[in-house]
Specification:
single chain; alpha/beta; Leucine Aminopeptidase, subunit E, domain 1; Aminopeptidase; 2 domains; 9-stranded mixed sheet; binds ligand BES; binds manganese (II) ion; binds zinc ion
Length: 536
């Protein structure tokens, strides 16, 4: 249980284009030229020789996703004191412009490297005058690190048999040390690459963090684990953290949180992390109740159901184990906060809230027909105890909006199976009450390689949630399930610009891509970080 999941490759950057190659593996990129001309590749002694035969035979011509592993001829091996053991070449074809193409190239490259016994890889990024380092290296590095991710913590043997190094590591005494076959990525390139690479690595690390949390089963990641992680982050980086427990929820009147959690023995947590990016103006200290935080404040809310059985409205048993992933929204928010904590962006405050609970049936569980009172006083008739996410989020949203007076709110939630019916696993649903904020998040998602599709809201949908005995009911007929989930949440944000991201179809089983593993994808982290890094 205590075994750490090793996914952190050390990355170094060499500000040089000389021929010094460190490590046992050289990774370079080859571009096919129209009409079958010679491939374009980095200028390294002996490299052309490596490629000549493969190219002449037509086996490898630098087509997109083509991979060639070759073993250095004497000239190249000698130039590196015999340390270089292999050259991995990845075809670029004519890569689409924009980050996503490069991210996928990075993923393909890492997959190829992982099939070898590589330990330290020198990367020659395909940077040219037309392709500046920032545009290429950032997504390339991101794709490589995202593709390197594995979750192996629960295997009693350190690693599976897929690569030589991993095979060997199973025999070594300190298996943890060598769990990852790839320990070092050395990026060679012009000056200025360092920041680009470290920012990309920071982002990839956060995505992998979110994947780690999600990969934990229900008995390995409980609501209190969100609290623990948040406290640790706060301690390390000087953020403010508040964890509301059941007692505090009772005092605050968070009937949604309490209702969802009452069938479970796991105590609920409402985790609040505050980052202040703007110092308070002198002499203008007003109480938070009246004025909120000074400067623009972004409120992030992530659904943190560490297991969702459906409660008394029990889900079918087939596939129910996947509901350990029902905390992916919370994981994305917490992981994004780790980047915020480290990068300390100026001019923006960010508040993260993770309502975390477990939804189980039991003698004390919430029942269909029960009427509860959400934070702020609205009453809700619970028709279906499996529509629990909105009950949690409603309390968090209402409380967060009142407490922090945010300029914008973004929530992420694996809220409805209906979003999979609508959009499949390729795009997440986006709904909101503010066109400008919607456009901003849509654009950030596009840049980050996490695409969304906007669905409508409106009074006709809100009307569907009218109850005969309470202010609202939590579900209606099956129709427009994703919209109704959002329409419910809309009731709790008032006039604050708000965007809801329904990531039920993308948080795991996300579109097949070279850098997306099976299982949890970490979807949402990159959107949030992109949004924050380019807030204004
Ligand atoms: N966590 C589920 C949504 C979900 C379903 C996510 C499948 C990923 C895959 C959520 O709590 C839920 O159960 N929603 C219900 C809502 C319904 C009762 C209105 C659903 O989608 O069936
Ligand atoms: Mn549910
Ligand atoms: Zn759920």
């Amino acid at each position: 249980m205590s075994k750490k999941n090793q996914n952190n490759h050390e990355i170094t950057v060499k500000a040089t284009t000389s021929s010094a190659i460190e490590g046992d593996t050289l990774l370079c990129f080859v571009r096919a030229v129209d009409g079958g001309g010679p491939p374009v590749m980095p200028d390294h002694p002996g490299l052309a020789e490596c490629l000549a035969g493969a190219f002449a035979s037509g086996d490898f011509i630098g087509k997109k996703d083509q991979v060639l592993v070759c073993y250095p001829p004497r000239k190249l091996a000698e130039a590196t004191d015999g340390k270089l053991q292999r050259v991995v070449m990845v075809g670029l074809g004519e890569p689409e412009s924009g980050g996503e193409g490069w991210r996928q190239v990075g993923g393909t490259a890492m997959a190829a490297v992982r099939k070898t016994r590589a330990v330290a890889v020198t990367v020659l990024p395909p940077v040219t005058d037309e392709r500046p380092a920032t545009e290429v290296v950032s997504p390339l590095c991101e794709g490589m690190l995202l593709a390197a991710y594995r979750f192996r913590k629960y295997f009693s043997v350190a690693a599976g048999p897929q690569t030589g190094v991993e095979k060997k590591s199973a025999l070594t005494e300190n298996a943890e040390e060598s769990e990852s076959p790839l320990q070092r990525l050395i990026f060679q390139g012009p000056r200025g690459l360092g920041i680009v690479v470290s920012r990309a690595a920071e982002l990839a690390k956060a995505v992998c963090r979110a994947r780690d949390m999600a990969n934990e089963p229900g008995n390995g990641w409980t609501p209190d684990d969100f609290a623990r992680q948040a406290r640790q982050l706060a301690r390390q980086h000087g953020l403010k953290v508040t964890v509301h427990d059941r007692k505090a929820m009772e005092k605050l009147g968070m009937g949604g949180m309490l209702a969802v959690t009452q069938g479970s023995a796991q105590p609920p947590r409402l985790v609040v992390l505050e980052y202040r990016g703007q110092p308070e103006a002198v002499g203008r200290r007003r109480s938070r109740q009246q004025a909120g935080l000074p400067g623009p404040t972004l409120l992030l809310v992530g659904k943190g159901l560490t297991f969702d059985s459906g409660g008394i409205s029990l889900k079918p048993s087939s596939g129910m184990e996947e509901m350990k992933y029902d905390m992916c929204g919370g994981a994305a928010v917490l992981a994004a906060m780790a980047v915020v904590a480290r990068e300390q962006p100026k001019g923006i405050n960010i508040v993260a809230m993770i309502p975390a609970a477990e939804n189980l049936p039991g003698p004390a569980a919430l029942k269909p027909g029960d009427i509860i009172r959400q934070y702020g006083g609205k009453s809700v008739e619970v028709i279906n105890t499996d529509a629990e996410g909105r009950l949690l989020l409603a309390d968090a949203l209402a409380y967060g909006v009142e407490q922090f007076k945010p300029t914008a709110v973004v929530d992420l939630a694996t809220l409805t199976g209906a979003v999979i019916v609508a959009l499949g696993h390729h795009r997440a649903g986006l709904l909101g009450n503010d066109d400008e904020l919607c456009a901003k998040v849509l654009a950030a998602g596009e840049r980050a390689g996490e695409p969304y599709w906007r669905l409508p809201l409106g009074p006709e949908y809100r009307k569907q949630l009218k109850s005969k005995v309470a202010d609202l009911k939590n579900v209606d007929k099956r129709d427009a399930g994703t919209i109704l989930g959002a329409a419910f949440l809309e009731e709790f944000v008032g006039n604050t610009p708000w965007v809801h991201l329904d990531i039920a179809g993308t948080a795991w089983n996300f579109t097949e891509k070279s850098y997306v593993p099976k299982g949890p994808s970490g979807f949402g982290v990159r959107t949030l970080v992109e949004l924050i890094r380019h807030w204004r």
